[in-house]
Every structure is written in structure tokens, then in C-alpha cells.
Design brief:
Radius of gyration: 50 Å
Distance between the termini: 160 Å
Structural class: alpha+beta
CATH class of the largest domain: Alpha Beta
Number of helices: 21
CATH superfamily of the largest domain: PAS domain
Number of strands: 28
Shape: elongated
Oligomer: single chain
Mean pLDDT: 77
Length: 880
């Protein structure tokens, strides 16, 4: 039995499906292409926004980095003046909640602008960045960390404080992430669908818009971190922190490990695709239903007409099938027209989507005429529908870019490939704009001329933003230079004021000691005057005269000790480090303080013999101890005990007090039995100008100056006190090599010195007579002169002179000038210069430098000491 043929109804239904389904496929493809084009535009927009935001955030960080670089050059850090640096730091303008910190290599904060200077500070919460700064010597941006003082999330920018190629400190500026959040908010247009975030080097969110507080401190997803680590910029798709799929662009910020991410949810992107597919699907379904209904209706008519052929009397033409086929072709043509109209509508929607994304497509045929939309014509300043050929668009180009643009498109037309070029257009009567064109050559069929296809985007906004950024950077550099100059001037003024205050403090201490020093000198003069009077009245008592002479010599040595301390105390300027015997210094200082502090103060020295010497400036050390002694006296208004003690301490690695390097130190302590200090007073004791004394009784510089001296000498100062238990102030000073004990033995007055002729010059007759008699008793022949000219007259007269002894301070010609003139006349003539206080005058000028042996002795000098020194010089000079 032969197979049954399909019915006319089945064939019509098949025709309907054959017409509708291709339309549906074309509509779906159009929807997908539209969606993909919009997605590519969105990807470019995200990448551009990510790059722009990274520059904006980097500019904010660069402002902080430049401010820190200026502060790092402060000269207060060269001298370790942290208090001065704290004041300079407080004058730097900064946003609310921003703090500036100075830390050492162990992440210990030395200064923090959020708390008063001197307050004990904890370690930094982000120790890793400090290690990187000290290792590399370069600035770094920290990851998000929790501040140890305020316990809030912070971000820090750290720069090194370097001197002579060595990093001394870490200077950082910590600020709240909300500052960056406000920067992101300012860049996000109202109603925008994208989300922006700033990630630190570990992938932690430090800023976000919107919902800053909800996401601060949360880690980015593993997919996001992997993509960011692989490149400086790019795109990635992954779930967001809250688990929803996103499309994101990222850009690494210049000069840091931070990254800016701009994202949009995938659901929003797919929504456009689903809307297009739904619209086309609904239209296709309606068309299909309509076609099926029409086919059903027509099949019934055709079937009825065919069935009517068998009806008797029914008219037949013999061409009914042809008529029905023609009718079916007409209906198919109608369906095709409808599909064409739908396709045209899809193309129009595609063009609108391109215009909405700022993408302007074009095609340039072999004849040079461009096919494009009116949007591209508008960018070139042309009216809608205007002819757009090589001559037209070349005339609209900026003169500076015309040759470059023409050459590039000629190359593309002849050599093929692709191009991407930015250029300016300057249409008549309109503003100049920056455009970006991407194009490639599509080869023609059969090897014929090709067609250039591409797109053009308006990038004027981006170029203007880059220009504004460059202007802002130039303004920032100018501001940094001005700020640096102002900081330098302020630091110089502060250092000058500190120098004046230090000298004033020294004079204040000297004034407080003046009464006691006068008392000691009166005692010395009393012993000298009384002893000399008794010798005069009882010249026949040889034994008593010898005893009284010894007493006068002891009193004289005591006066010499007092004057030497006053001379050392009066010095000013930079530290002059020398080896100081601490037990001897404390013993001598006790003699001064015992009478100057008052009868109610007992001064005790506890310093074992044999302590190694310390390396310090003797005068500054005595000044510091005198200041501590006067503070102790004021703390004991009813009397008490002041104990000056010294002991050797070894400081090992890992157990040393803060601020001390490993090594050997002498701990010098001044302890009193006074009223002591409570915790609040003790916390401020080191602050400059802080004092508990009444106005006029203290400057508040004693302890800060002592602390500065100790730290400048390589040590430190510490204070401990309790109310009612007294106060102890301790200085740690580094140990130096032992001082030379004695000196090589000097020859006596015999041998080469016997019979030598000495010219003795001094304007004080009693001094000259006493020294002359002492030298003559030891076998020397002495010539005397009362002035420099008189001594030169004896030399010019031919007097035999083996040694010249002269006082320094004399009217007319001083001892320095006399020795120079005498040695010009008699080269190799040895000389001894006597002075009570040499000062700068003891340094001979180059043109008056001695040409023979030369020695300096300080008054008062005994005849034995002068004779021994004369013998040594005569022996060194040799015969002749």
C-alpha cells in the first residue's frame, strides 16, 4: 500500500513554521549581538573608570607622601630633638582624624600627633611595612590595620627618614579609610549602577562605594585576588563578596600595591539580553500563532474547494490549484516583508544602543566615502546627512594632527592590519574635541580593494581629566617647595631660641651658685690672708712658718679647683667630648655644692674608686649635675640629703633600656629625700618649660637640657619618683678607654737645665718676683721684663736667652705676639705661655706660629712645676 501524501493543511503549517522560525533565529541573534555590543561598551567603560579612579586615589596618597617627605627633612631629626619635631609636626595641616607617627626600626612609636609628647606609646600595629621601609629605603603604602591607640581601622603611608644613606626612622601618616570612601563617592554619579572599591596589597577592602561601612576590612574573593596578582590592569568575572556574580575591571595604583576595582552585577548585564529575547520571543510567538491560524483557515477553504469538485454541478476551472499556489506565494511574500521590517527595527535598536554607549561605527569604501551615522558627523561638526569623505574629515582635523592622521589611514588602506589612534578635531565654530578611532582593513572579494571598518569614541573628558591631574600635581609640587622652606625657617628659629634658652639656663644655675662660690672663695682668701699674716708676725718660728705655708698651698689648690670648674661651666657651643673621671668629678663637685645648697642639705658622694672614665663634655656634665642638685634642693625646703652616686652597668642585647645601645655605661644618679612627684607631674617632667616652681624660680629647662645632653653623648636619662619618697634622676653615659695616668717623667733642673738663662716676662711685679726666685733656687739664671717690648729689647741687645717664659694677658703686646716675635728673631727658641684663662687667644695664628718648642701652663703654677717644664723644653730643644 503506497504511503499517504501530506495534506494541504500539513504543508501550509510547515510553510508557516518555515517562515517564522528563521525570523525567530534572526531576532534572537540580533538580540545577542545587541547585548554583546552593549557588554563590550560596558567593559571599556569599567576599565576607563578603574584607571581614572586609580589616578584620583593615587593623587590623594601622593599629597600625604609629599607632606611626609618635607617633614622627613627636618633638622630636628638630625639632632634627635623629638620634642622639636613634635611641634613642627603639629603645624602640618591634615584632615580630621589623621595622625602622624615617627617610629624606629623595632616598630616602636617615638612620636604620635594624636597624643601629647612624652606619653608612653605602644608598638605600631602594622610592623611589616616598617620592615619594608628600612630594608628598601623607599616610601610604602600600608595594608589596612587596627590603630593601637584608638583601636580603629587605619591606613598609613610610610616614608624613610634617611641621613647619609642610612635609614634612621620611619615617618608615617595614618588616616581613616573613610577619607578614601569620600573620594570614591565624589567620583560616582548619582544613580550609577557600578560599584567601586579600593583593595590593599593583601586584597582587603579599605574603601567602597556604596555601603562603605558594611564591606570595610572584608577580603576580596579568591578569583579577584588571583586576577589582580596576575596583571597591572584587566577584567575578571567572579562572585562578589556577597556571593552575587559580577563583571569587574581593575587597575593597579602607581607606586603602591593597592588596586582600584570597578564592578557591575552580571544580573544587570543579562537583564538587557533577557528583555530583548523576551520581546523578540513574544513577537515571534504571536506571529507563529497568527500564521498557524491563517494556515488552518486557508487549508479549510482549500480542502472545501477541492471537496466541492466532487459535488455535482459545481463549477470547475481546471486551474484552481495554480490559483491556490499563487495565493500561497502571495501570503509567503507578505510574511517575508514583515520579517524584513522586524529586522530593520532590530538594526535601528542596535544603532541606538551604539549611540547610547558613545560608540560611532563607520565604514570607508575604496572610493574614500565614509558610511556613518549622524552622531559621528556631529563630532566632526558636520550637518546630518552631509557627505563624509577624505576631503571633508581631513578639513575638520586639528592642524597639529592632520598629517599624522592622514598618513595612518593611508597606511591602513594600502598595507592592511589595524590601528588605534587619538587625535583632535577642530570643527568651524565649535570647540576642539579629542577622539579615539579603532579600525582595521577588511579585504575585498577576489583580491579587490578592501573596506576600512571601525568605531570612534569621544575621549575628551578623559583627556581633560588627565590635564587637570597634571595641573594638580604641579600645584602640589609648588606647595611642597613652599612648605619645605617654611618648615626650614621655623626649625632654624626654634634652634636659635633653644640655644639662647640653654645659655640662659646655665646663667640661672650660675647665679644660684654665686653665693656659695663667693663663700668658698672667702674661705680660701681667709686661709691665705691669715697664714701670710702669721708668717709675717713670727718669722723666727721656722716650723710654724712651714706648717702655715702648707696650709696656704692647700687653700690655693682649692681656689684653683673652683676656678677650673667655673671656666668649664662657662663654656658654650657644641659638645667637647673627653674622658672624664666620674668619682673625681663628683668629689670636686661636692666641695662646691656642700656650701652652695644651704646648711640644711647634706651632700653625699657614693662612687667606688677604679670606675672607668666616661666619654662626655665635662662642663656640660657639671652643668647638668648642678641643675639636678638645685632641683633637689628646691624639693627639700626643710632640708634633707642629696646623694650623688656612680656605678658601672653592662647593657646586653635584648635587655637594654629603651634608647640605649648594647655596651658598658656609667650610671650617675642624683637622689634626694624630698617631696617627690605624683604620676601626672612625673609624666610631664621632661616637657620643656614645664615647672612646678613659682614664677621666677625656674624655667622648666633643667631636665630637658640634661636629657638632651645625655642623648647627644650616646646615653639616656631616666626619672623615678613617688610622693613622699623623693626623686632619683639617673644619667647613663658610655664608657671610654681609661685616661692616661700621669705622664712621662720630666727631667729635673739638673743636667741640661743647670745654668740655663730664662727670660721671664709678666706685667705683675709680685707674680714675676715669686716665679723668678723659685727658678733661681733651682739653678736657673733669670732675666726679668715687665712687658713684651721690654723683653724684645733685651733680645735685640744680644742677651743670651735659652728659654722664654711669658704671661698671656699683658697690656700692649700679649704673650702670643711676644713669643711669635721672639722666635722670629731667634728660631728654635723654646717658650712657655702662662695663662689664667686662655680661651680662643691661646690658639696661635698661622703667621705667628711658634718656630721652636712651645708649652702652655695654667696659673697658678708653682715653681717646681715651672722648673720641671722648663727642663723638659730645654732638653727637647737640645744644645745650641
Amino acid at each position: 500500500m503506497p504511503a499517504r501524501s501530506p495534506t494541504i493543511r500539513a504543508r501550509l503549517v510547515a510553510i508557516v513554521f518555515a517562515m517564522v522560525l528563521p525570523f525567530g533565529a534572526v531576532a534572537a541573534a540580533t538580540a545577542v549581538l545587541t547585548w554583546r555590543s552593549g557588554r563590550e561598551a560596558t567593559e571599556r567603560d569599567l576599565q576607563a573608570r578603574a584607571a581614572s579612579l586609580s589616578l584620583v586615589v593615587a593623587r590623594e596618597l601622593d599629597v600625604a607622601r609629599a607632606t611626609l617627605a618635607v617633614l622627613a627633612s627636618s633638622s630636628t631629626l638630625d639632632t634627635g630633638d623629638l620634642a622639636g619635631f613634635y611641634e613642627a609636626m603639629q603645624r602640618v595641616p591634615r584632615p580630621e582624624g589623621t595622625r602622624i607617627m615617627l617610629s624606629d626600626a623595632y616598630a616602636r612609636m617615638l612620636v604620635n600627633s594624636m597624643v601629647p609628647f612624652g606619653t608612653p606609646l605602644p608598638r605600631r600595629g602594622d610592623t611589616g611595612i616598617i620592615g619594608r621601609v628600612f630594608e628598601s629605603g623607599e616610601a610604602h603604602v600600608s595594608d589596612l590595620y587596627t590603630g593601637p591607640i584608638t583601636n580603629e581601622p587605619l591606613i598609613a603611608i610610610d616614608v624613610p627618614v634617611s641621613r647619609e644613606g642610612r635609614v634612621l626612622y620611619d615617618l608615617s601618616m595614618g588616616f581613616r579609610p573613610a577619607i578614601l570612601g569620600r573620594v570614591l563617592d565624589g567620583q560616582r554619579p548619582p544613580g550609577s549602577a557600578w560599584v567601586a572599591a579600593v583593595l590593599d596589597g593583601s586584597g582587603t577592602i579599605v574603601a567602597r562605594t556604596p555601603d562603605m561601612d558594611a564591606y570595610l576590612g572584608r577580603q576580596a574573593t579568591a578569583e579577584a585576588r588571583q586576577a589582580i596578582q596576575a596583571a597591572e590592569a584587566g577584567l575578571f568575572e567572579s562572585p562578589s563578596v556577597d556571593g552575587k556574580p559580577i563583571l569587574a575591571a581593575f587597575s593597579r595604583m602607581p607606586g603602591s600595591r593597592w588596586t582600584v576595582v570597578v564592578a557591575i552585577r552580571q544580573a544587570r548585564l543579562r537583564a538587557g539580553l533577557w528583555r530583548s529575547l523576551a520581546g523578540f520571543g513574544a513577537g515571534g510567538a504571536a506571529l507563529l500563532l497568527f500564521g498557524l491560524a491563517l494556515a488552518w483557515h486557508q487549508s479549510r477553504r482549500i480542502a472545501g474547494a477541492i471537496g466541492g469538485l466532487a459535488t455535482p454541478g459545481a463549477p470547475t476551472t481546471g486551474v484552481r490549484e495554480v490559483e491556490e499556489a499563487a495565493r500561497a506565494l502571495a501570503e509567503a511574500a507578505t510574511a517575508r516583508d514583515r520579517a524584513t521590517m522586524a529586522l530593520a527595527g532590530s538594526e535601528a535598536r542596535l544603532r541606538r544602543a551604539q549611540l547610547a554607549g558613545g560608540v560611532h561605527p563607520f565604514e570607508i569604501g575604496p572610493d574614500g566615502v565614509a558610511q556613518c551615522g549622524d552622531g559621528l558627523r556631529a563630532l566632526f561638526g558636520l550637518p546630518p546627512g552631509a557627505r563624509f569623505d577624505h576631503v571633508t574629515w581631513s578639513a575638520c582635523l586639528h592642524p597639529a594632527d592632520r598629517a599624522r592622521m592622514t598618513a595612518e589611514f593611508d597606511r591602513l588602506a594600502h598595507e592592511g592590519g589595524s590601528t588605534e589612534i587619538e587625535y583632535r578635531v577642530a570643527p568651524p565654530g565649535g570647540p576642539a574635541r579629542w577622539l579615539l578611532s579603532r579600525a582595521e582593513l577588511q579585504p575585498g572579494e577576489g583580491g579587490g580593494p578592501g573596506t576600512i571598518v571601525g568605531v570612534t569614541l569621544d575621549v575628551t573628558g578623559r583627556r581633560l581629566a588627565e590635564e587637570r591631574l597634571r595641573e594638580s600635581e604641579a600645584q602640589l609640587r609648588a606647595l611642597a617647595g613652599t612648605l619645605e622652606e617654611r618648615v626650614r625657617e621655623e626649625v632654624a628659629a626654634r634652634e636659635a631660641a633653644q640655644d639662647r634658652l640653654a645659655q640662659a639656663e646655665k646663667l640661672t644655675a650660675l647665679g644660684q651658685l654665686a653665693g656659695g662660690i663667693a663663700h668658698d672663695f672667702n674661705n680660701v682668701m681667709q686661709a691665705v690672708q691669715g697664714g701670710a699674716g702669721l708668717i709675717r708676725r713670727r718669722p723666727e718660728d721656722a716650723e710654724g712658718a712651714e706648717r702655715l705655708a702648707g696650709m696656704i698651698e692647700d687653700a690655693t689648690r682649692r681656689g684653683v679647683s673652683i676656678t677650673q670648674r667655673l671656666l668649664a661651666f662657662s663654656r658654650r657651643g657644641e659638645l667637647r667630648a673627653e674622658a672624664v673621671d666620674v668619682p673625681a668629678l663628683l668629689g670636686g663637685l661636692r666641695e662646691v655644692l656642700a656650701h652652695t645648697l644651704g646648711a640644711g642639705i647634706e651632700v653625699v658622694v657614693e662612687a667606688p674608686a677604679g670606675l672607668p672614665p666616661v666619654l662626655a663634655d665635662r662642663g656640660q656634665l657639671e652643668t647638668a649635675l648642678v641643675n639636678l642638685a638645685t632641683n633637689a634642693r628646691d624639693a627639700m625646703p626643710g632640708g634633707g640629703r642629696l646623694t650623688l652616686s656612680a656605678s658601672e652597668e653592662k647593657v646586653a642585647e635584648g635587655s637594654r633600656p629603651e634608647g640605649l645601645a648594647p655596651g658598658s655605661y656609667i650610671r650617675i644618679a642624683a637622689s634626694d629625700t624630698g617631696t617627690g612627684m605624683d604620676a601626672a607631674t612625673l609624666a610631664r617632667a621632661m616637657e620643656p618649660f614645664f615647672t612646678t616652681k613659682v614664677v621666677g624660680k625656674g624655667t622648666g629647662l633643667g631636665l630637658p637640657m640634661a636629657r638632651g645632653f645625655a642623648e647627644q653623648s650616646g646615653g639616656m636619662l631616666g626619672v623615678s619618683s613617688e610622693p613622699g619618697q623623693g626623686t632619683t634622676v639617673a644619667l647613663w653615659l658610655p664608657v671610654t678607654s681609661p685616661m692616661a695616668e700621669g705622664r712621662p717623667g720630666l727631667p729635673g733642673s739638673g743636667g741640661v737645665a743647670a745654668g740655663a738663662r730664662i727670660l721671664l716676662v709678666d706685667d705683675e711685679d709680685p707674680v714675676r718676683d715669686v716665679l723668678a726666685e723659685g727658678l733661681e733656687d733651682r739653678g736657673y739664671h733669670v732675666l726679668q721684663a715687665g712687658s713684651g717690648p721690654a723683653a724684645l729689647a733685651l733680645i735685640d741687645a744680644g742677651e743670651a736667652v735659652d728659654l722664654l717664659v711669658s704671661d698671656l694677658s699683658m697690656p700692649g703686646m700679649d704673650g702670643v705676639a711676644l713669643i711669635g716675635e721672639a722666635q722670629r728673631r731667634r728660631p728654635r727658641l723654646p717658650a712657655i705661655l702662662l695663662t689664667g684663662y686662655a680661651g680662643d687667644a691661646a690658639t696661635l695664628p698661622a703667621d705667628g706660629a711658634p718656630r721652636g718648642a712651645f708649652s702652655l701652663l695654667r696659673k697658678p703654677v708653682g715653681a717646681p712645676q715651672l722648673a720641671d717644664r722648663a727642663a723638659a723644653l730645654l732638653k727637647a730643644a737640645g744644645p745650641g
